[in-house]
Specification:
The protein has about 300 residues and is of the alpha/beta class. The protein is built from 10 helices and 15 strands. The two termini are about 35 Å apart.
């Protein structure tokens, strides 16, 4: 469905994206995770045909665009515009227009005829259960519903691939849950979803995740496999007051505060057993299931380095 090959983007001497490659299948929910400035949005802008890469190319279906092997531009990006929908991290609707008027404007950008527009309008209205709210000004809607309406605008031309750049930033947990229920429905219908998010609970909904740091992909796998590969021996938890000062200086043991406890990681299970013999209090440590937040802080932020 979509493949990114050796993608690099430079702004002057600054490398925003470096040699990024991955594939995304039809109907897959694929996540891009990383700190601010990691290159997630730049990568999405290239995939949407909004930015020409310095090197590399993107293939959507049979269409390839970007830089070819001779360094020349391939301007085929225009050919994929009808197949993709893009929802920016910045709110993209007009507050002083109604829902219907915003959708009408989105349809006009695609030169959609009136008959198809009405069918899509009826379908999306029913999909979101908006009822008469389509007559309301967007500026009067709750923030969570605004995001759903913006998603519908990105879907108006029924694209195969949907790019969502931090789509739920600033909305309530309940609104985020509702939004992701819609995303799962779209994926079940065969839509390919590529999403960036800072919410680790949302990232759990992705079938695969690509973790980016300083423009590079540093890990790519399913959430569960990322947890296991990052912490093959798990994470051990122990109450803070039970940890002797000498153990805090142990260089082969990484530890960090977590609530009233400390979490500890060792990448050498035999050494952990030796430490337990030296410090019997470690026998009271409990095995803690790693979370995606743990993975993010370990790989992206380098917490235990």
């Amino acid at each position: 469905m979509l493949e990114v090959r050796s993608l690099s983007v430079y702004f002057g001497d600054f490398a925003a994206v470096k040699k990024v490659s991955f594939k995304v299948s039809k109907g897959e929910i694929f996540g891009l995770l990383g700190a601010n400035g990691a290159g997630k949005t730049t990568t999405i802008r290239v995939m949407c045909g909004l930015l020409i890469p310095t090197e590399g190319e993107v293939q959507i279906g049979d269409t390839i665009f970007g830089k070819n092997n001779n360094g020349n531009n391939n301007n085929s990006a225009e050919l994929i515009k009808s197949r993709i929908g893009y929802m920016s991290q910045k709110f993209t609707l007009y507050d002083d227009l109604t829902v219907e008027e915003n959708w009408k404007f989105a349809a006009s950008l695609r030169n959609m005829n009136n008959g198809i527009y009405k069918k899509r309008c009826d379908y999306l209205n029913q999909w979101l259960s908006l009822g008469d709210r389509t007559k309301q000004l967007v500026g009067k809607l709750p923030s969570g519903l605004k995001q759903q309406v913006a998603l519908a605008a990105a879907l108006f031309h029924n694209p195969d691939i949907i790019f969502l750049d931090e789509p739920t930033a600033g909305v309530s947990p309940y609104a985020r849950m509702q939004f992701w229920n819609l995303i799962k429905i779209l994926a079940s219908e065969g839509k390919t979803i590529i999403v960036t998010t800072h919410y680790m609970d949302e990232a759990e909904n992705c079938e695969r995740l690509s973790l980016m740091r300083a423009g590079e992909i540093i890990a790519l796998d399913s959430p569960e496999k990322l947890k296991h590969s990052t912490f093959p021996h798990g994470i051990w938890g122990l109450a803070e007051e039970k940890i002797p000062p000498c153990l805090r200086e142990e260089k082969t043991l990484s530890m960090w505060p977590c609530g009233l406890n400390y979490h500890m990681v060792t990448h050498n299970l035999a050494h952990w057993e030796d430490l337990k013999k030296q410090h019997p209090i470690l026998a009271n440590a409990t095995l803690v299931a790693p979370t995606l937040e743990d993975v993010f802080l370990e790989l992206v932020e380098g917490r235990s380095r």
